[in-house]
Structure formats: C-alpha cells, structure tokens
Design brief:
Largest sheet of chain A: none
Helix content of chain A: 55-70%
Distance between the termini of chain C: 14 Å
CATH topology of chain C: Cytochrome C Oxidase, Chain A
Shape of chain C: globular
CATH class of chain A: Mainly Alpha
Largest sheet of chain C: 2 strands, antiparallel
Chains: A mainly alpha (274), B mainly alpha (113), C mainly alpha (561), D alpha+beta (335)
Structural class of chain A: mainly alpha
Order of helices and strands of chain C: HHHHHHHHHHHHHHHHEE
Number of strands of chain C: 2
Largest interface: C-D, 87 and 84 residues
CATH class of chain C: Mainly Alpha
Number of helices of chain A: 8
Oligomer: heterotetramer
Strand content of chain C: under 5%
Structural class of chain C: mainly alpha
Number of domains of chain A: 1
Radius of gyration of chain C: 23 Å
Chain lengths: 274, 113, 561, 335
C-alpha cells in the first residue's frame, strides 16, 4: 500500500486515507454507501415524474395512445443502444481503474463521453422535429403536422359557463356531462387501445409536457454525468488512479449506470405505447 | 497484464462478463422493440416493464457489481424502490377514483391558440 | 482509531484544554478557517448561528402577523402584506429553522462525539451542506427583498402559478435547502453505519443517534420528492408545462399529492430529533437508566416508515376520493401509536428517579406537556368527520404549533442548554434560564391554546380580516406571542452573557454517560485524546460527582475512559 | 371511564341552536353526529392528557432530587407494560377512526331528492345559481330539505365552509366538487372561504339564509322575477349574459357557434332546410324552447333546450332585448 504516487491528502503513509478514517477499506465503504444513498435520492427525484406519467396515463390513456404516433421509435431504440454501449465502456473503465491501467482508463472514459455526446445529438434531432411540428408542452402546443392538423387544432374545450345550464336542470334530470371514466388499473383496460381515435383527444399537450420534462431532466443528468467523467479524465491524464485506487471512478460509474437504467425505463414508457 | 495490484476487497469484473451483459442488454432492447409491435392489449405495458426490469437488474447486478458487493447496498436500492412504488401507488389509488368529478377536456387556458 | 499526532498526552493536557487552550474554537483563526472548515464542530456552530438568526427573522414575521390580527380590519399592514407575512413566517420557520435545527446544529456537533469519532464520515459533504444552506437562505432573502411571496408555505397551484409575487425565488431557495438537508441526512447514515466505536452495537447507541438515524432516512427518501415538486412548479411558471395548472389540462390535486408526500414526512424530520434529545435529557436529569430502550429505538424507525403512509390526511376535504380518505385516515391513527409509546416510556424512566430541575429538564418536562396536547389534538384531525369541520381552521394552526413549536423548538432549547457547556465551555445562568423557560411556556400556551377554541368555533386560517366575534381570542393570542418574544429576548441575553463571562464548564457538568462528556468542554479539534470504547450510554453509575468546578468524573478514575 | 368523562363534557353542550362550549351552534343534520364524535375524542384526549401530566407531576414532586437520596434501580424494560400501552391506544384510535369514517359517509353521500344549487367560486366572491337559473350572491335554502351543492371554481382553489352545518369542501377549478347539507333550524349562517386564495380570501364571505317552510319558494319566485326591478330590455340583457347565451351568440356581429343577435330580429333568415323566414317573436320563442326545430343555415344544431329553465317573462324580456339590438344605435348593444 506504500506506492509513492503523489497523494492528494497530506503525505502520511497512505496517500488517499483521510485523517478521520481507521483504514482505507472503511473509507471506500463509506464513499460507496454514500454514493448508493445518493442514487436513492436520484431515484426518488425521478419517481415524481414517473408518478405524474402513471397518473396521466391511467386517467387519460387516449392522449398517450394518440400522441405516441409522433415519437420516432427507431431513434428512441438507437438512443437506448447508445446508452447501453456507454454503460459498457464505463464499467470497463472502472475495471481498468481497479487494475491500475491508466491508459485503458483514459480511452474508455473518452469513449463513454463520445457515446454520451451521440445520445444528446440524437435527442437534439428529436427535439428539433418536435419543435418544427409545434408539438410542444403546455401552452406552446399548437401542432401543425399532418397527423394532428386536420383533426381539430386546439382541443375543443367545454367552456364551464355553458355547463351550468345543463347542470342546473335538476327538474328534467339531465345529468352533469358524463365524465371520461378512467380505468382503475394502470393499463387502459377498456379504452379503445388499438385504433388511434380519429379526432385528437383533448389536452394532448399534457403528454408532451411529460415527455419534455422527463427526457429534459434525464438529458440534464446526462450532461452532468459528462462533466464529471471529463473531470475524471483530467485526473487520469494527470496521473491518478494508477495504483488501483478507484473509488471516484467506481462512484461515477454507479451514477452513470443509474442514468442508463432511468433511460431503460423511459424508452418503453414513452416510445412503445400500445 | 498482471503487473498492477488491486485494492483489497474490491471485486474486478471479468471482461467476458461485461461484454456478455452488454450483449444481453442489446438483445433485450430489440426484444422490447419487437414485443411492442405485437398487440397484446393491456398486457403490452407489463411486458415492456418486465423487459425493462430485466435490463435494469442486469445493469445493477453486473455493471454496478451488486452481485459481489455488500448486501446492504442492494437493500438500500430495493428499499428506495418500495418507497417509489408506495408513492406512485398512493397517488394512483386516489386519482383514478376521483376522475368522475373531472370536467372532461377542461382547458379554458387553451382558447388563445 | 489511529489518533493523528495528538499533542503530547499528559495529565495537564485535558486540564489545559478545559481552560480553552487549544479547543476547536481557538485552534485556527480567521474567517477563512471558519468558512472552509471541515471540522464538524465548527460547522455545527455555524449552523447554530444561522438557524438562530433565521429563527429571529421568522419570529419577527410571527409578531407582525399577530400584531396585525389584534383587530379585525387593518391594524398595521394591508391584506397583501399580511399574506406575505404569514407565508414568509411559514417558509422561514420550516425550511430555515425547523428542518435543519436539531440535526444540523446539535446533530453535527454531538453525533461524532457520541461515536467517539474524529469527524462525520464525509466532512466535505458536511461543509457543502452548510454552504447550500447559506445559498438557499440568500435565495429566500432575495425573495423577501423583491416583495415577498404570498402563496402560503404550501405553494398550492393554481394560485402559486398565477400570482405575481416572487414564487420562483422562494421555490428555488427551498429547492437548494432541500439538498442541504439531503446531504446532512446522507452524512449521518454513512457515519452511523461506518464509524461506530468498539463496544457500541446498534442497540448500545444513545437514543439521540437512533432518532437522528430515523430522521436521516426520511431526509434522504422524502426530500427529493420536494425537489421534483418545486422544480415542476418553477417549470410551470416559466415554461407553462401545465402539469398542475387546470387551465392547461393539469390537475391541482396532483401537486398536493406531490407536496404532501414530502411535507408530512418533513414534520417527522422535525419531531424525531426532538424526541431523541428528550430521551437523553429525561434519563440524565432523573439519574435513571432509560426505560424500554428497544421500544423507543424501534418506535423512531416506525415513525419514520409510517410517516410515509399518511400524507393524504392533508387532503381530506380537497376533493380526494372517498377510498383514499378512508385509507389515509386509518393509517394516520397508526402513526400516532409510536409517539404515545415514547411518551409512556419517558414517564416510566422518571419513576423512582432523583429528578433535578435544571433548565434542560424544565424544557424536557414542558415537551411532554406540550407534545401530549399536540399529539392528542391530532386525533381530532385524523378522524374524517371532525376533520371536515376543523380543516383549514385555527384548530389546525394550533395543532401544528403545539407539535412543531411545543415539540421541536422546546426540545431544541432543552438540547441547546444541555450541550451549551460542551459547545462553548461555559455555563449559562440557571436562574435566568428558568425565568426564560417560564416566560416561553406561559407565552406559548396563551398564544396557541386560545387558537384551539377559536378554530373549533369555525375561524378559518390565513384570514386577514375576521369576524368581530373572534376578537377576544385573537387579542389574547397576540398578548401571548409578546410574552413569548420577551422570553426569547431574555434567553438571548443570558446566553450571550454566558459566552463572554460565563462560569467555566467542566468536561461533564450534568453527569451523563455518553461519550461526548468524556472529552473536554469545549473539545479539542481532534475530539478525543485516545480511542474510546463505548459502554451502556445510560449506565449513570459509571460517573460520580466531584464538585461543581470538576463536574462528574468517570467513577473508576483512569480506567476505561 | 372515558364514557363517563365524555358524558360530563356533553353536558356542557347547550341545546342545538345555541353555540356550545367549543363548537358553533348545530344547524344541520350531520352537526349532531360531528359534535358527538368531537366530544368523544375530547373526552379520550382529556383523560390521557390528565393521566400523562398527572403522572409526570407526581413523579416530579415525589422523586425530586434530595440530598443523599440516590435514584433507585428499577427495571429498565417491561414488555408486558409496553404491549398494554400500545394496544390500548391502538384500539381507542381505531374506535375513533370508525366513528370518523361513519360520520364522513353521511357527510359526503347526498340523499336522492336533494335540491340542487350550482356554486361558482371566483377570486373573492361566491355565485349561487338556482335551478330556475336565477343567480344570487347568497345561498338561500329551504329548511329540513337536503340541498346538494355542485361547486366549480373559475380560477384558483377555494373552499366552501359553513361552520354551523359542519360542512367544508374545496372548490377546485377543472372539476365539479359536490357537497350537501340539510338545514334544521331557520336563520342566517355565515359561509367562509377556507382555502387560501389571495388578497380577498378573508372577505370572500356569503350568507346562508335558511327559510321557514314555504318561505323559500315565495322568496325564489320573487327574487328571480327580474321585471320587478328592471325594464324588459335590461332584464333581457341580464339573462343574455348570465344564462350562457353570450357563450354562443355574439351581439357585435362576429361569428360564433350560434348566429349573431346584432340586427337579427325582424330580418330574413335562411334555414338549413333552405326555407327563408323572418326572425319574429314566434321564431325566437320556438328556438329557445325547441332549438333544433328551425336551425339557421351554416350552424350546428348544438343549442341546449331552455325548456323549463326560462319563464315566460324571461322569454319576452329576451325578445325585447333582441329587438333593441336590431333597432339600430338607439337600441344600444350588449356590454
């Protein structure tokens, strides 16, 4: 344990051991446990979006089925494979760091960065097509693309004012406008799941809000991952991680794999809706 | 190949395993893509989720080497999943049961478009 | 515990430190040594100063709110200003004071000492947590200076989406404070798992550490959901994504679900550390071993876990479905049981003790009194039928002040007085301490017990202008709030005085058996001379009283320390 | 023991109709049930509070520090004791939950023959629309008859709260939230907004006037007869704005879902059947009561019928208003 590589800590016998730890193993365990708990917070951070997705899909399946036609499944699939490759190179980089092979580590980290950049590039293309067709979120949703254009541009809304008369007609018993019965389970059990409804359902902008928030936040996490990997690359090129001390690389690898797992779930949920 | 030593207690994942897992993931991606073309009605969602969970566990067990690490890290991850499911389940239980009060398609804000 | 080049261990070293020779306070000089310190004790003290300043700010807002409510119509401010005052009172008190108060100030300082450790596991993360706290506080301050925010601390949509006040600054401030809270929680979990000394298994740990562990679990699991909620709210206002805004097809109830999924566990983040301090104080000041250690420890974890199941009881009347109302009401009653078990265990601890009435014990007793009222009034709000009448009235305001103020703040004051000698090596004046405690107790009850009665008579919450029939209640409550403020001024006075001219404190002034009393007061920057082995934290026979100046010393002098 | 305490506390409550010690006066069918549960929980809480604080004070006095008297060694745990003080509070809690849920079922399930009033909440005022279309800013209800409120908000979340009836329900935009009550004693009660909604949250009040038997119908007929206070043209204009005509028929000539009323009355109109008629009183009256009979060419037959929701005086007022619109500038357009 007494290699003389320039330690980042004060120069006592183990270069990486912080003063308040008993031994390196305790320090490595602490760092890893800390990382896993941080991954737990990331998971819960995204759980908010998965919850919004589940709620709107369970209650308005027609929107999701209708809007799915505007998402390019091939690009989505390609992106998934790109991220899986970046996961491979990252895991391989961790292995190289553990074995102290600094050159392989540098190459693999660069490869991971390249894959991540490709992922963002493909994402950029997708966003561009949506921008052109006006398939944006919330109040910016004004589709001018062949699929949605002719079937009622802005969703026809039931102005609340008119509803009172119908609602107030207690005497002749006309019921309040029938509500869209949301199915109980997650899957649209009784909704017309298969043929796309001719006219666009109302509030389609909700799907695109969720799509952009989910993929946007995931994109931000990919960018953050790229920054941290670049920082690792710089430290590698400056000569660290030669002696098998791999905790930072290991932790960044854990973070990167979590970002990949989140995309693994995002891909079927957003792109493959039946 | 064997000149560098490795810090004690850290498991180095053999390269063969890494590449095998990678291949498995790519195959499962193709599988979920293919499965989505078959019309299984409401089952489609659960099949897609099943395949995604399989892929996720592959990444967790091998790439994040949960298989060889302390059990506690796996416990932390699974425990978090429980809380995520509790959150999503709780919200779904409520929201699916009050849909009957919603005014269908109500979005006066969209008049401007 | 390889001790890192401690000063030459000699008989005099401990005595020298006690005189504030080379303690953590005097170890390094200059502002930079404080701003970039990695020493958990210094971070704890900096948090203490920041939390107390925020408490003062929140208190000022509270007094302005109470003064405005002296008469029904306009008393001192307009309706808009009043709305901003109660919102900022809520936001400052919750995000800047209650959430970080005990874990970040007393927890940061005392947890490593109780473990006989040199520092928390991740000191840099600890410092990052404090820096994020300051940045978050600056955001809230910026929100105050740019005209404040008037949505209530709950930021309910669609009002928070449509109002013109600086909601974005406040939500970003709370978002950053969330990460500060996550980092503290994460740090404590790793420290408790990895840095316990020899002889301290999970069930020979002080109960304060159990409650800090349970709090950390909640901080780590609940705060991210607040993060995503506030992020979506900011996106709602800036980009108009329309997930929570009914005008764009969204559902405002979804926001309430997101918000309360964090905010109910958040109230357990606030109360659990208070219960941890309570266990320490009751045991030491009754000179009795804690009763039912396992049950208190398990009930901390039970509260943490059940706390996640009950968030729907905030939405009984907001249109939540009947099924969800029933489920959440049932689960709400299950979460009341562990708190009751703890109170009974504290009482059993006091049985046949030798109870001293130093200031920390007065606050501990006040805690049992006030938290009993706070907890029991939760039964009214948990039962569906009565909640329909009582929801969003002053009954709820009184309930959460009894649990938050009567619980967390009172226990925080008890803990502050208890560890004050350890923090600064000085004793405070017991006489003034008792006077201040009495003022706080009387002022608090006068302020908030009247609000129970007002609430059950149907006085709605957050009302700037109220019906004349409620005037006597409001006036009594305002008088109470002034007595409360007086109590705090007295406290600020004698605590400040103790810092300068306070009587020197020995290593163990109260005769407790936990490890932090084995090092000097204030402790050296490296905490312990040599490695500590932990015994039973509540076995008070291991210490014997020598004199007021010497305090308590280990019973078998020299061995086992 | 708790029931004894509970009865003592109940004795404090005066007869219904007078504010009791802790609760406002009971003026609805569910109020009694809610108060019963309130005092039951109060009894249990008071009992446990006195128990806990009593024991604490006794211990504090009995076992206070005395020179030379050390604390005695007692057992440090007793599982049986722990189990008892877990099970007892749990059972009491479940009892309270059961009462609470039963009461809640009564509070949220309206009886079938409820009289329906539509409530519209907007930033800082309430509007109550009665079945005959009359809109008032106060809620008038008959006594001893269930009233069902169908509530909807125009902007932010409000909450309809009548302490005397023990009912409260949030009014959320984008949905119809329902509440019901049955008033038992005639009189005037205060209605609050209970969910924070901005500057005027505390002034967003309304009165609930419970009429004596028979008093309500006379009031409604009198209040909704607009001609008593307005000229026919003004009454027609009021109905045009309030009853939703404005939603589909413009008065400035612009095309909407329905034909514009500007210059409509007395002129030639081509129907979807190709037949041309003059828009006279009979055509307007028929189109109000049976809209699909003669639809103007180029318009969808989507107009709802107003059969039974507009009295004859209302229809004549609307016709006068339409005349004023096509009588040129003198007539004066809408708002």
């Amino acid at each position: 344990m007494s290699t003389t590589s320039p330690g980042s800590e004060s120069g006592h016998h183990d270069p990486h051991l912080a003063h308040h730890f008993e031994n390196a193993e305790q320090q490595a365990d602490s760092a890893k446990l800390g990382m896993w708990i941080f991954l737990a917070t990331e998971l819960l951070f995204f759980s908010g979006l998965f919850c919004a997705y589940a709620m709107y899909r369970a209650n308005h399946p027609e929107i999701f089925i209708w809007a799915d036609q505007f998402l390019d499944k091939k690009l989505g699939g390609l992106n998934t494979v790109i991220l899986i490759c970046s996961s491979l190179t990252m895991a391989w980089a961790v292995r190289a760091a553990q074995l102290g092979r600094r050159r392989a580590l540098a190459i693999l980290l660069t490869a991971t960065l390249v894959f991540a950049a490709c992922f963002l590039g493909v994402k950029g293309i997708e966003y561009n097509t949506k921008w052109k067709h006006g398939l944006l979120w919330g109040k910016y949703y004004h589709p001018h693309v062949e699929g949605a254009a002719e079937s009622g541009a802005a969703p026809v809304t039931a102005p609340p004012a008119a509803a009172p008369d119908k609602a107030a007609a207690a005497s002749d018993g006309t019921e309040i406008p029938p509500a869209a019965e949301g199915p109980a389970g997650l899957a649209p059990a009784n909704a017309p799941a298969h043929e796309i409804p001719a006219s666009a359902p109302k509030n389609v902008q909700i799907f695109f809000s969720i799509y952009f928030v989910m993929t946007g936040l995931h994109g931000i996490h990919v960018i953050a991952g790229m920054i941290v990997i670049a920082w690792l690359l710089r430290r590698t090129l400056r000569g660290e991680f030669g002696d098998g001390y791999a905790t930072p690389v290991d932790n960044v690898g854990l973070y990167w794999h979590l970002v990949d797992i989140i995309w693994i779930y995002l891909f079927p949920l957003l792109y493959l809706i039946r | 190949m064997a000149e560098a030593h490795q810090t004690t207690g850290v498991h180095v994942v053999p390269l063969k395993v890494l590449v095998a897992v990678w291949a498995g993931l790519v195959f499962l991606t193709w599988l979920t893509f293919a499965a989505s073309r078959i019309n299984l009605g409401s089952l489609n969602l659960w099949v897609a989720m099943g395949i995604a969970t399989a892929k996720g566990s592959l990444v967790l067990l091998y790439f994040m080497h949960l298989r060889w690490d302390k059990r506690f890290y796996a416990l932390v991850f699974v425990g978090t999943l429980l809380f995520v499911m509790l959150f999503v389940g709780g919200v779904l239980i409520d929201t699916t049961h009050y849909q009957s009060q919603m005014i269908p398609g109500y979005a006066p804000g969209m008049h401007g478009q | 515990m390889t001790s890192v080049n401690p000063p030459p261990p000699g008989e005099g070293a401990a005595a020298a430190l006690a005189v504030g020779g080379d303690s953590y306070l005097s170890h390094a000089k200059g502002l930079r040594s404080w701003i970039f310190t990695l020493d958990h004790k210094r971070i704890g003290v900096m948090y203490l100063v920041a939390v107390l300043t925020s408490f003062f700010l929140g208190g000022v807002f509270a007094l302005l709110v109470r003064t405005e409510l002296w008469t029904p119509g306009r008393t001192i401010v307009s309706a808009d200003t009043y709305n901003k005052l109660f919102t900022l009172h809520g936001a400052v008190m919750i995000f800047l004071v209650l959430i970080p108060s005990i874990p970040a100030t007393i927890g940061n300082f005392v947890l490593p000492l109780m473990l006989g450790a040199k520092d928390v596991a991740l000191p840099r993360l600890n410092l990052a947590s404090f820096h994020l706290y300051v940045v978050g506080a600056v955001f809230l301050l910026a929100a105050i200076l740019t005209g404040g925010v008037d949505t209530g601390w709950t930021f309910y949509t669609p009002y928070s989406v449509t109002t013109g006040t600086s909601v974005i600054l406040t939500t970003l401030g709370a978002f950053i404070l969330g990460f500060s809270s996550i980092f503290t929680g994460l740090n404590f979990i790793v420290t408790l798992h990895k840095m316990r000394p020899k002889g301290m298994s999970w069930f020979r740990m002080p109960l304060l550490l159990w409650s800090l562990y349970a709090t950390a679990i909640i901080q780590v699991l609940a705060t991210p959901v607040l993060g995503i909620t506030l992020l979506l709210l900011v996106a709602e206002r800036t980009l108009g994504i329309g997930i929570f805004n009914p005008a764009l097809g969204g559902d405002p109830l979804l926001f309430q679900h997101f918000f309360w999924f964090y905010s109910h566990p958040a109230v357990y983040i606030m109360i659990l550390p208070a219960m941890g301090i309570e266990s320490e104080l009751i045991s030491v000041f009754s000179r009795k071993h804690i009763f039912g250690y396992n049950f208190i420890a398990y009930s901390s974890i039970a509260i943490a876990v059940f706390g996640f199941l009950v968030w729907g009881h905030h939405m009984f009347v907001s249109g939540q479905s009947g099924l969800a109302n029933m489920i959440f009401s049932l689960l709400t009653f299950s979460v009341a049981i562990p708190s009751a078990v703890k109170v009974f265990n504290w009482l059993a601890t006091m049985y046949k003790g030798s109870i001293r009435f130093d200031t920390p014990m007065l606050y501990a007793l006040a805690f049992i009194f006030l938290f009993a009222i706070g907890g029991l009034t939760g039964l009214f709000l948990g039962a569906l039928a009565t909640d329909v009448h009582l929801h969003d009235t002053y009954f709820v305001v009184a309930h959460f002040h009894y649990t938050m103020f009567g619980g967390t703040v009172i226990a925080f004051l008890g803990g502050l007085h208890y560890w004050w000698p350890k923090f600064f090596g000085r004793r405070y004046s017991e006489r003034w301490g008792k006077i201040a405690a009495l003022l706080v107790f009387v002022g608090f009850n006068l302020t908030f017990f009247t609000q129970f009665v007002m609430g059950s008579h149907g006085m709605p919450r957050r009302y700037y202008n109220y019906l004349p029939q409620f005037t006597p209640y409001h006036q009594a409550s305002t008088i109470g709030s002034y007595i409360l403020a007086l109590g705090f001024f007295v406290m600020a006075g004698y605590l400040a005085h103790s810092l300068i001219k306070g009587e020197r404190a020995p290593a163990n002034p109260w005769g407790a058996a936990t490890l932090e009393w084995r090092t000097s007061s204030p402790p050296p920057y490296y905490n312990f001379e040599h490695e500590m082995t932990a015994g039973d934290p509540y076995d008070l026979d291991t210490v014997r009283f020598v004199s007021r100046a010497e305090g308590w010393v280990p019973a078998t002098e020299g061995a086992g320390s | 023991m708790t029931t004894l305490l509970h009865c003592a506390l109940l004795a404090l409550t005066a007869a219904p109709g007078k504010p009791s010690f802790l609760m406002p006066r009971e003026a609805s069918t569910v109020a009694g049930e809610v108060d019963h549960l309130f005092y039951l929980v109060l009894g249990i809480s008071a009992f446990f509070f006195l128990l806990v604080v009593g024991i604490m004070l006794y211990f504090v006095i009995r076992y206070r520090y005395r020179e030379g008297v050390a604390a005695e060694k007692t057992a440090t745990h007793n599982t049986a004791l722990e189990v008892t003080w877990t099970v007892i509070p749990l059972t009491l809690a479940l009892v309270i939950f059961a009462y609470g849920f039963k009461g809640f079922i009564d509070i949220v399930t309206p009886p079938a023959n409820a009289y329906e009033v539509l409530v519209t909440a907007q930033k800082w005022s309430w509007q109550f629309t009665y079945p005959n279309g009359y809109v008032d800013k106060d809620l008038h209800v008959p006594v001893n008859r269930p009233v069902r409120l169908v509530m909807q908000s125009q902007d932010v979340i409000h909450s309809l709260y009548v302490p005397a009836f023990r009912i409260k329900r949030d009014v959320v935009p984008g949905r119809y939230n329902k509440a019901w009550f049955q008033a038992t004693t005639p009189g005037e009660y205060q209605l609050f907004c209970a969910e924070y909604c901005g500057t005027g949250h505390s002034t967003m009040l309304a009165k609930v006037i419970v009429h004596r038997p028979g008093g309500f119908d006379t009031w409604l007929a009198d209040a909704s007869n607009l001609l008593k206070t307005m000229s026919p043209v003004d009454a027609g204009r009021h109905l045009y704005t309030v009853r939703g005509c404005a939603q589909c028929h413009s008065i400035d000539g612009s095309g909407k879902t329905g034909p514009t009323f500007k210059g409509f009355f007395g002129h030639k109109v081509v129907l979807s059947t190709g037949q041309a008629i003059t828009a006279d009183e009979d055509y307007v009256r028929e189109s109000i009561l049976d809209p699909q009979a003669k639809v103007v060419a180029g318009f969808e037959p989507v107009m709802p019928t107003f059969q039974g929701r507009l009295t004859n005086e209302d229809i004549t007022s609307i016709i006068q208003y339409l005349k004023s619109l096509s009588a040129g500038p003198k007539g004066g357009g809408g708002k």
